[in-house]
Amino acid sequence: MSSxxxxxxxxxxxxVIIDNPPVNALSFHVRKPLHEALTxxxxxxxxxxxxxxxxxxxxVAGADITEFGKPVEQPELRAIIALLETIAKPTxxxxxxTALGGGLELALGCxxxxxxxxxxxxxxxxxxxxxxxxxxxxxxxxxVGAAKALGMIVxxxxxxxxxxxxxxxxxETFDGDLLANAxxxxxxxxDRGGPFVPVRDRNERLAETDLAAFDAQAADLAKKARGLExxxxxxxxxxxxxxxxxxxxxxxxxxxFAKLVSGDQSRAQRHLFFAEREAAxxxxxxxxxxxxxxxxxxxxxxxxxxxAMAFANGGFPVTLLETSEEALQRxxxxxxxxxxxxxxxxxxxxxxxxxxxxxFKGSADYGDLADCDLIIEAVFEDxxxxxxxxxxxxxxxxxxxVLATNTSYLDVDAIAASISRPQDVLGxxxxxxxxxxxxxxxxxxxxxxxxxxxxxxxxxxxxxxxAVVVGVCHGFVxxxxxxxxxxxxxxxxxxxxxPAQVDKAFSDFGWPMGPFQMxxxxxxxxxxxxxxxxxxxxxxxDTLCEEGRFGQKTGRGWYRYESGSREPVADPEVExxxxxxxxxxxxxxxxxxxxxxxxxxxxxLVNEGAKILEEGIAAxxxxxxxxxxxxxxxxxxxxxxxxxxxxxxxxxxVERLEHWHHSTGRAIFEPAPVLRxxxxxxxxxxxxx
Length: 689
Ligand code: NAD
Hints:
Blueprint: E1 5-10, E2 13-18, H1 28-42, E3 49-54, H2 77-84, E4 91-95, E5 98-100, H3 102-108, E6 112-116, E7 120-122, H4 136-144, H5 146-155, E8 159-160, H6 161-167, E9 172-174, H7 178-192, H8 204-207, H9 211-224, H10 230-243, H11 246-261, H12 264-279, E10 295-298, H13 302-313, E11 318-321, H14 325-345, H15 350-357, E12 360-363, E13 374-377, H16 383-396, E14 402-405, H17 412-417, E15 425-430, E16 439-443, H18 450-462, E17 466-470, H19 478-486, H20 489-494, H21 499-509, H22 515-522, H23 524-534, H24 539-546, H25 572-584, H26 594-614, H27 621-631, H28 641-648, H29 650-664, H30 673-681
Parallel strand pairs: 2-3, 3-4, 4-6, 5-7, 6-9, 10-11, 10-13, 11-12, 13-14, 14-15, 16-17
Antiparallel strand pairs: 1-2, 7-8, 15-16
Helix pairs in contact: 1-2, 2-3, 4-5, 4-10, 5-9, 5-10, 9-10, 10-11, 12-27, 13-14, 19-26, 21-26, 26-29, 29-30
């Protein structure tokens, strides 16, 4: 047998073991010997039943996604499943770890499925912009019913072995030696005798479907898909399973899959999948890490509290430091309230809340940070205050403790240089709410020791964050590009656009919301305060703030909000203010289309990304995409700004930037050399990825 597929006979039951580390992906070199083994066993009188199982830590956790988009080498998965369905003796998939995607589809080709109670089973293809193309949409509803199948396939979220048993997806769950139990189960089935009905021929659950209810469920999902094609195609495929004969539904699934796999959205989503993996590869990754057991947080405000929760959720004890007992109690009360909300929503058991709260220790004394292995500063965004805090940390932290700042914009090199141990300092830029948002920008300062960077990158994974290493500059990758994206916002209004038009261009593009809605949500006073501190002005936004229009929290901002509602309503007062300011500046209003809005906001976003690459602030173009999709809501179906630049056409972006540079004279439009190179060569080049 091949080294990837092994066959043994245990008391008349053939056991086929797939062994393709790390996740037993169904690569060509597995499919071929698997097909051969099953063909031989089908006709082998010495085997009364067949168990399909896997070596290592998991059942087949998916197709080999490096093969997507390439010509498929035969036998493909569907042929193996079709072969399984011609076998008259009982076939049993024995599932441990995860059975995902093609792995679960393989298991659906068997007559029976048995699983570890803790196993996870799911069809996550939608997350790559695809649908399960190996018959999953047609077979799963035959076992669990159409409604449950639709939920699983459109969400892509796996279910546990226990839930799978309750739903009818698996026949038996076991604790303990799965393989021995699977062999016994298969032997019993063989002794009991057939006929054994393949999943394709089981129509009872489908016959129960309430088609009107199904269509309502699908329509609801379509509304939430926000421009993504895959969830809609998934729903269509499951509907076909209900309304068409098996083989026709299977053929239709194939067609839908072929369309998705060759489309831009799936390419974009697969790009992001690989981009996240790449981002985790940092120099020094294999260095000996420092031990991080207790985490200290300075400042228990919005960010400090959220960061503390992120660590407690990851099981770390946390010491939270504030300037006064009162501020500390306020911070701890907010944390408790946040956990209580999760409990009331049913997403966190009460016992887990108590266990997590038990991990917090509050203090107003810096001496209490002496036993922390990592200390994160999250105090006011003020260099003098930050340096003061770092000076105190320098005095009390134990040797080798990692000292991090959560600053949004400030110079991490300057903070590091102000203390005696700059090698231990770096930025950990979390996003708000820090216990929810996945992105973490890890800011590598000039003197940060490689093992400190490796330690924090590893730690980020342990608390479920997607980490991207960035260099020091004003605003790092995300906020610096955000400034470029917003630089023309007021100019667009003065020249004739309304906030609602700009926001609509953004939501039509696929963003969750546009910049003015975003401003109202975050609070316009924050930017106003920052501008004042930096001696900057914004003609319209400053006036709104002077009038007490801070956004949702005051019921009025760029929009009006009716008594407590979060629904923005266009406000004629704001539009009148814009026109008055334009008149004062002698700007005659004109019609501004969505195309121009995109050119003047998203082209500078890409251009700033190109400058960031050029300066080495980001190591790869794909790192920038990871930042924007995970931290700022860039639509996943477009793959992040740098990937989207390729879809949009770099030559076109350069040409339009030149046009706007020429007509406005503003530096944000001056095309970066790396962007020109993309236009000429089709690649971000050596600095990009
Ligand atoms: P905040 O005002 O909500 O909280 C700051 C807290 O720090 C306050 O509770 C204050 O009492 C405390 N503090 C001030 N000086 C202190 C000191 N010397 N010792 C101990 N505690 C002290 O502010 P925030 O929004 O949580 O921001 C904190 C930092 O995080 C800033 O650097 C900010 O730029 C950054 N940040 C904020 C966001 C955001 O969306 N709010 C996102 C990323 C990063």
